[in-house]
Design a protein that fits this description.
The complex is a heterotrimer of chains A (about 375), B (about 400) and C (about 350).
Chain A (H helix, E strand, L loop, with lengths): L26 H9 L4 H27 L11 H6 L7 H12 L8 H18 L7 H18 L16 H26 L4 H16 L2 H15 L8 H27 L2 H9 L4 H31 L11 H8 L9 H35 L1
Helix pairs in contact in A: 4-13, 5-6, 5-7, 7-8, 7-10, 8-10, 9-10, 10-12, 11-12, 12-14, 13-14
Chain B lengths: L25 H33 L30 H34 L4 H15 L3 H13 L15 E3 L2 E4 L1 E2 L3 H31 L6 H18 L6 E2 L2 E3 L2 E3 L2 E3 L1 H27 L3 H9 L4 H31 L3 H4 L4 H12 L2 H30 L5
Antiparallel strand pairs in B: 1-2, 2-7, 3-4, 5-6
Helix pairs in contact in B: 2-3, 2-7, 2-11, 3-7, 4-7, 5-6, 7-9, 8-9, 9-12, 11-12
Chain C lengths: L8 H19 L12 H8 L2 E6 L7 E2 L5 E2 L1 H14 L5 E6 L4 H6 L5 E7 L2 H6 L2 E10 L1 E6 L13 E5 L4 H13 L3 E5 L3 H9 L5 E5 H10 L6 E3 L7 E8 L3 H19 L7 H4 L5 H6 L6 H5 L5 H9 L2 H8 L26
Parallel strand pairs in C: 1-4, 1-5, 8-9, 8-10
Antiparallel strand pairs in C: 2-3, 5-12, 6-12, 7-10, 7-11
Helix pairs in contact in C: 3-9, 3-13
Classes of the chains: A mainly alpha (about 375), B mainly alpha (about 400), C alpha/beta (about 350).
Protein name (chain A): Amino acid ABC transporter permease
GO cellular component, one term (chain A): ATP-binding cassette (ABC) transporter complex
Pfam families (chain A): BPD_transp_1
Chain lengths: ~375, ~400, ~350
């Protein structure tokens, strides 16, 4: 775009000509002038973009609100079919929203996964607040994750037992992402430290692990977990499908997080290492008291970004048939009566993903800005 | 080990103590740790390996890559090379690999183009355009790629059937069988013209190098475009004309169930390409924006003060500096696009993962199938990394 | 000197330690990680529950109803085997398996028996580590098209786009048939049956090919079944069989003879309703089947009255068929008893 380059025409203005007063730079008119209509090209772009946006918006509102069907009586989707695409059939979401959120979890027990979702959100919010960044946070995590396990499985405290095959929906997405992070993070720290080790064998192993995992798509790891893993185990021993997928995600996340942590370790000035050595601290004291607290603080924004990545990537378990949010959405439209309303369901599922990811990405941006301010001082 | 410490004056290195067999000697500790780790890891690997061997034996599952030479019997919808179901698994997998490369290469080119445009638009002084680009980037990056692929595929499946196909321009048909367009019937003349174009491109590049070298000596800039025009447009046209300028267009037409003739872009390929490109473009836009912002304002001003015109400022001053920031993260995006193309399996595009998956399903040889997938991606990843590292080294700042 | 450098080693030791530990931890607490001895029969008995691999959802064969209870032909076979083992048809856990993971699930012990419309072929029997116990349904591959196309024969499919599930015998049969009949087609391959169906319904493909029974199931599930018709050609033999792990003869015997029991029960007119009264039936074979004499049950390692329990749980073959497959429009055809011109034949209970 030409507006990237600075205008150089000032010199060409004839000096003698009487000049009109400068255009207003303040107020609405001024804002419009500087931001939307600063040159003829800019004006043309503005008008074109505005036209397209407005047209699209009108179309979307017509399809999504004006002409939409919000509910239909017991699976009679004829009203929706009659629209022939000029309006959305939100009835599919009205009808199937509990299925999309909770999958095949027993219907009357839906409050349990719902509570788990709230617990997860609470856990995220607490972890995001800087005043809670203490060692005790790890305990909170362990406690909450344990509570979620109890709620989901049941079998104690008068809760009926629900086998894993019946779990589904949003809660699976949250479980895969959160447990993945909780287990991958310590692994990642150790691998990152190992990769900077001076012992050749250890360094080689860590490099091999990170590069191997980062070189292949997550899908191949998930396939491995679903069809190859059973062959690795001794005869008679077998692990649940969900757990296998979770292990694959942990291994995958570990390699990526390790690189993020390594970035933090490298960004730390050499003086910190040398000063710690000069104080005669042992390796673990040096790492635990001096290096990691600083390095981890440095990598929190990229860490959150990586987490957003995993959160989205958990949707890949669809391919090996695990019932996460996306799979549940997809399954909801398999019933013949509801076939063909994929767009509505995908928009809804997308909105759920978006809320989580957008909140996290805004948070990471704010945090980054805060850290940079601190560093600049 | 200890002989090297005989004459400390010969080396400026600190004297090395002889190896003491004590826990307080860190070298001993290091060796012990390494032996321990390698041993432990080896034990785990051996355990898994022996389990696997035992399981394969007990369950009498076939092993080895012998199946690659067996007849595959699996039909493949689109293929860059000649293929039919009587061919071997090896050939089927090759077709899959080519399909992966087809979507990855086209995706990389398109995502780079769109991403760069969006990235620049985000920096535009036009508020509306900048906001729109920002919204695009934010939304596209916060939705799972798989969801986007399914979304596009659902939209494409909702298109009318071939008999009611939409026809935006005469001869181009859009239906739930994909996009059909007229295509030139390929003849030898076209192959030679293509060859001439490639030669012309190489020639232009060589000329540019020579011209730049001359410019270094005498300071005279030389025009590139006449040479480029001649070598890359006129020469191929001349070659084509020399063959009598054959020109038959293959028009798609509805016959029987489907369109015959012309070129087809299947809904599966289209949805995958669209999803991959738009998704990755969101990330590339941010990289490009960061790269341009990383060039200090003073560089723009200084270049203008030297009297360079805007195009030259961008070309000679800003881009070379921005590229240094852009290339490394761009490499990882290119790797991502390649790895993400494996999601094809969810919407039925037959890439390497899809075909290896079917193969392991038919032969029951899971280990071999997954090994093939991993090997292919590792090789591709490594090649892209190597190429981009080489390119990065070329454009890196040469410091004295 | 490198004062602390070498102790970095600990980092990675810890890494691996953690990895191994993590793996160990994930294995140990799982009550699901059962120790199955090589002998499936003992393992299943010790567990008190049969784990049965079924389809992820195929009307008439295996599909969860709105209460999440598995219904269908294959699911009933699981109940029958459970009833033979435990005397209770509900002591079974259903594990839905896709076409891709079905064999792995069986090999690894995730499921004890595969009751999931799986075609018996030589290569599967020999190289996949499984044995086929009995063919409980004879099927063949066919084509379904939209009625509006007005097709009479599959040979008219020249140039058509055909939906087919990858990694199945269906896919290979299709290629073979197309080659033999010089029919060119474009395949659309989607792994999951449900999505493949929706691709066909949305018009992505002109024709849909799978086992005729599967086509009937899909057709019956459509809002207007008459909009789809199944073409007359049957292009392959698809004996759908019950699969068990290889080298497990005793368990295979039980699965096999449970199937034969259902056939014999139909042959001798033993039904869910009259099974108690039939104990007084004078025919010697009925006496032997129902465990009144002959001691056949213990020979299989089961109780004397196993057959009574099975028939009480699911009924005989005809009842089972009528309950699950007749409603979706599948005729007995080759699955009639041999004395009615079909292929279903039970060796004698003796």
């Amino acid at each position: 775009m030409s507006d990237l380059t600075l205008e150089t025409s000032v010199a060409k203005v004839p000096e003698a000509a009487p000049r009109s007063p400068p255009a207003s730079q303040i107020g609405l008119v001024g804002w419009l002038r500087t931001n939307l209509f600063s040159s003829w090209l800019n004006s043309a772009v503005t008008l074109l973009v505005a036209y397209l946006v407005i047209r699209w918006l009108i179309g979307f509102v017509e399809w999504g609100i004006v002409n939409a069907v919000w509910s239909v009586p017991n699976n009679q989707t004829q009203a929706c079919r009659d629209l022939k695409g000029i309006g959305a059939c939100w009835a599919v979401v009205t009808e199937k929203h509990r299925f999309i959120l909770f999958g095949t979890y027993p219907y009357e027990e839906h409050w349990r996964p719902a509570l788990c979702i709230l617990l997860f959100v609470g856990l995220y919010v607490v972890s995001a607040m800087r005043r809670f960044w203490r060692k005790e946070l790890a305990l909170v995590w362990i406690a909450v994750l344990a509570a979620i396990g109890v709620l989901m499985w049941g079998g104690v405290l008068g809760l009926s037992y629900v086998p894993q095959e019946r779990w589904g929906g949003l809660v699976i997405t949250l479980i895969l992402a959160t447990f993945g992070l909780a287990f991958a993070f310590p692994l990642a720290i150790l691998v990152a430290l190992g990769r900077r080790s001076r012992l050749p064998a250890i360094k080689a192993i860590c490099v091999l692990y990170v590069e191997l995992i980062r070189g292949v798509p997550l899908i191949s790891l998930l396939f491995m977990a679903s069809v190859m893993f059973p062959l690795f185990l001794p005869e008679g021993m077998n692990i649940d499908k969900l757990l296998r997928a979770q292990i694959a995600i942990i291994l995958f996340a570990g390699a990526y997080l390790a690189e993020v942590v390594r970035g933090g370790l490298q960004a730390l000035s050499k003086g910190q290492y040398e000063a710690a050595d000069a104080l005669g601290l042992s390796y673990w004291k040096k790492t635990g008291l001096i290096i990691l607290p600083q390095a981890l603080r440095l990598v929190i924004p990229p860490l959150v970004n990586t987490f957003i990545g995993f959160f989205k990537d958990t949707s890949l378990v669809l391919i090996i048939g695990i019932f996460d949010l996306l799979t549940a959405g997809k399954t909801a439209i398999i019933e013949p009566a509801w076939q063909g309303f994929g767009v509505e369901v995908y928009l809804t599922v997308g909105a759920i993903y978006f809320v989580f990811c957008f909140a996290m990405s805004k948070y990471s941006q704010r945090l980054e800005a805060e850290f940079n301010r601190h560093r600049r001082r | 080990m200890s002989q090297s410490t005989t004459d400390p004056r010969a080396f400026r290195a600190p004297p090395r103590r002889p190896l003491r067999l004590s826990w307080s000697d860190e070298r001993v500790r290091g060796i012990v740790w390494q032996v321990l780790v390698v041993g432990l890891l080896g034990a785990v690997v051996w355990w898994l390996w022996s389990n696997t061997v035992h399981n394969l034996e007990v369950r009498r599952i076939a092993t080895g890559f012998g199946f690659l030479r067996r007849e595959a019997g699996l039909p493949i919808a689109e293929s860059l090379i000649e293929y039919n179901p009587t061919d071997t698994y090896l050939r089927a997998l090759t077709v899959g690999l080519l399909n992966t490369l087809k979507v990855a290469v086209v995706g990389i080119v398109l995502a780079t183009l769109i991403g760069t445009l969006v990235g620049i638009a985000r920096l535009s002084r036009n508020w509306l355009l900048a906001r729109l680009a920002a919204i695009y980037v934010e939304v596209i990056r916060d939705l799972p790629l798989l969801l986007q692929l399914l979304f596009w595929y659902a939209i494409l499946q909702g298109l009318p059937g071939p008999r009611q196909a939409m026809q935006p321009v005469a001869g181009i048909f859009l239906s739930n069988r994909g996009l059909k367009m007229p295509w030139v019937e390929w003849q030898d003349a076209h192959s030679f013209a293509l060859l001439a174009f490639v030669l012309g491109a190489v020639g232009t590049w060589l000329y540019r190098r020579a011209a730049l070298q001359k410019q270094m000596q005498d300071g005279q800039p030389r025009r590139l475009w006449p040479v480029a025009l001649g070598a890359m447009v006129a020469l191929p046209l001349a070659v084509w004309a020399a063959f009598g300028a054959p020109w038959t267009i293959d028009w798609p037409e509805l016959r029987g169930f489907n369109f015959r003739g012309g070129m087809t872009i299947s809904p599966e390929y289209f949805a995958l390409l669209l999803g991959l490109t738009l998704y990755t473009a969101g990330f590339i836009a941010e990289i490009v924006r960061a790269g341009i912002l990383a060039v200090p304002q003073g560089q723009w001003e200084a270049a203008q003060a030297l009297g360079l015109h805007p195009g030259q400022v961008l070309n000679r001053i800003v881009l070379p500096q921005a590229l240094r920031v852009i290339i490394p993260p761009m490499t990882s995006q290119y790797l991502n696009i390649t790895k993400n193309s494996s999601l094809a399996v969810a919407i039925g595009y037959q890439d390497i993962v899809s075909i290896a998956n079917t193969t392991l399903n038919q032969t029951g040889q899971a280990i071999e199938g997954i090994a093939i997938i991993m090997l292919v991606y590792l090789t591709i990843s490594l090649s892209i990394s190597l190429f981009m590292n080489w390119y990065n080294a070329r454009i890196a700042l040469v410091e004295r | 000197m490198q004062p602390c450098g070498l102790s970095l080693a600990r980092a990675c030791v810890q890494t691996l330690g953690a990895a191994v530990l993590g793996l160990g931890l994930t294995l140990t607490p799982s009550a699901r990680a059962q120790q199955t001895p090589a002998n499936t029969l003992d393992a299943v008995k010790a567990r008190g529950q049969l784990v049965c691999g079924v389809n992820t959802g195929l009307a008439g064969f295996a599909q969860p109803d709105s209460q999440g209870v598995w219904r269908g032909f294959d699911a009933e076979y699981c109940r029958a085997i459970a009833a033979a083992l435990f005397g209770d048809g509900n002591k079974v856990r259903f594990v839905p398996t896709t076409a891709q993971v079905r064999f792995t699930a069986l090999q690894s012990g995730e499921v004890d028996v595969l009751s999931r419309n799986t075609t018996w072929t030589l290569s599967r029997d020999t190289s996949l580590g499984l044995d086929f116990a009995a063919t409980n349904f004879y099927d063949g591959q066919g084509f379904m098209v939209k009625t509006s196309l007005g097709l009479k024969s599959a040979k008219e499919l020249e140039g058509a786009t055909i939906c087919v599930q990858p990694g199945t015998t269906t896919e290979q049969n299709l290629s073979d048939w197309a080659r033999a009949n010089k029919v060119r087609f474009t395949p659309v391959v989607i792994e999951r049956l449900e999505e493949l169906t929706s691709a066909y319904v949305s018009g992505r493909c002109d024709a849909y090919t799978t086992d005729v029974s599967g086509l009937a199931a899909v057709r019956s599930a459509q809002p207007k079944p008459e909009d789809h018709s199944i073409l007359p050609e049957v292009i392959s033999k698809e004996p759908l069989a019950l699969g068990v792990r290889q080298g497990d003869a005793r368990f295979a015997d039980i699965v096999r003879w449970t199937h034969f029991l259902l056939l014999s029960a139909e042959e001798f007119g033993i039904t869910q309703a009259n099974v108690d009264k039939m104990g007084n039936d004078p025919r010697p074979e009925v006496q032997r089947i129902l465990g009144k004499n002959g001691g056949l049950g213990p020979m299989l390692g089961l109780s004397e009255d196993w057959a009574v329990k099975v028939i009480k749980a699911v009924g005989n073959y005809a009842e089972l068929f009528d309950r699950t497959l007749t409603p979706i429009g599948i005729k007995r055809g080759p699955n009639a008893l041999w004395n009615n011109g079909g292929l279903q034949f039970s060796p004698p209970f003796r």
